Amino acid sequence: MSNLAEQTNDPSQVVPAKKAAGRKRAARASVISNTCLIAAKLGVGLAIGSVSVISEALHSSVDLVAALMAFIAVRVAARPADRGHPYGHGKFEHLSGTAESLLIFVGAGVIIYEAIQKIGEAGETGGVVWGAVVMGFSAAVNLVVSRYLFKVGRETDSVALVADGAHLQTDVLTSAGVFVGLALVWLTGWHWLDPVTALVVALLIIKSGWDILLQSVGGLVDASLPGGEEETIKNTIGKFSGRYVNYHDLRTRQSGPERHIDFHLVMPDEMTVEAAHQLCNHLEDALDQAVNGAIVQIHIEPRSVCTEIDGVYRCSPARTFHAETM
Predict the structure, then answer these.
(1) Where is pLDDT greater, at 89 or 41?
(2) Strand partners, 308
(3) Among 191, 220, 249, which residue terminates a domain?
(4) 3-class SS at 159?
(5) pTM for the whole thing?
(6) Cβ neighbourhood burial of 57 (10 Å; 0-12, 13-18, 19+)
(7) Could you say which of 220, 253, 270 is where a domain stops?
(8) Structurally, how many domains does the chain consist of?
(9) CATH number of the domain residue 237 falls in
(10) 108 compared with 1, residue with greater pLDDT
(11) What is residue 300's three-state secondary structure?
(12) In Å, what is the CA distance from 117 to each residue of 123, 128, 201, 325?
């Protein structure tokens, strides 16, 4: 622990540094596993001439590109804020997730094209056993890796790792589907099941890509935090209600692993600047703990320049400007 604190030059940065290191390890594991599985699927698929196995190799190739993008994204997003990026680099993870979803659509299109070309073609039944073996092995490996990515992604609020985990989770389902399809081809001799299975795989891939696209774009357009987190924020602020008059204009958004919260806080006129400052510090610490890390901005307003409307204090811009410039 002490060495990590020394490397960051700030003991308060030990936890963020550990989270960043965890994100990098998870992204690296995803890259290695995808590379090995692609080689196995492509080799077996070409050997037995199975379009469903080859389509899974193409799917895993998309996953590999996505894993590489996630690996780069988490490294960039971990960089501290600088002059050119005063709010940090968190949105690089959202950009990565958006690009990953577009790659998924391209991969699905290739699979659909190849599957349609193969419908009606005859093939050998004997080699499908090897295809089933590699698909079963792939499903098992990706199940373990996807759970690891989800765990680390949720613990460290990494959009890129969660997106990568979603890729691999879909790969588990598609690999299992191809496994079943190849088993049926071996049992029945119906070779048309192979390209049909590939088409089902493509549809599942498109669904996964759409879900990732919606999540990633939400971060790029500064969508609010989920309702449950906003409710937690409101409850946390409410715990200090005895020390302020009212609060309003609450806004939230997420940028990579960082959550941003800002709101206006109405204070009693007799409260000193020092007391108001201490209250804001306590609020910031409480919110940081409540939502697993937050950057909080609080605008303080005196009661005398605000008007109560239906129990909510709203401050007059003109009066506020006059009070602040006096």
Answers:
(1) 41
(2) 313
(3) 220
(4) helix
(5) 0.51
(6) buried
(7) 220
(8) 2
(9) 3.30.70.1350
(10) 108
(11) strand
(12) 13, 19, 16, 73
